[in-house]
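INFO  loader      accepted 1 record
INFO  loader      residues=165
INFO  predictor   begin
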Amino acid sequence: MAKGAEPGAVTARRAPFVLLVVVLLGSGLIVLLLLNSSLNQGSFELSNLEKQTDELSDERQSLQQEVDQLSAPGALEQRARELGMVPGGSPAFLNPDGTVAGVPAPATGQPSVAHAPGPLPPLVLDPTPAASTPAPAPAPAAVPSAGPPTPAAGTGGPTTPAPGR
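INFO  predictor   done
INFO  writer      dumping tokens
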């Protein structure tokens, strides 16, 4: 102890210093605790994001495999035949000057969906369909009676106009 100082005075001067040290240590521990909690929370978020990234990578890989399978030439050919497409012949190309390179020819073969349910696709794609299909034979002329013919009761069929109208 110091000479001439009372024992209570020395303790009174040390009390604020001790209190300051205790407050600094306590606040340091609280800051470390908060920092540790924050780092743990970030670590959990990181692990969840890594797990999600792995799942999405697996899904992307499976989708890419599916695209590769559907893009394979054999699968494309099978799907095209199911849609009624037929293999084309040798291709013809238009040159920039308007000339044709190659011999254009229609595709040959019958579509494979002729027996499938639903509307049938055209068998031949021809720019002039009237020339490729025969015209229907005209109906025999009926002898006109007193009035125009009427459809049978309940059929709702089309009426044919009387001659001379």
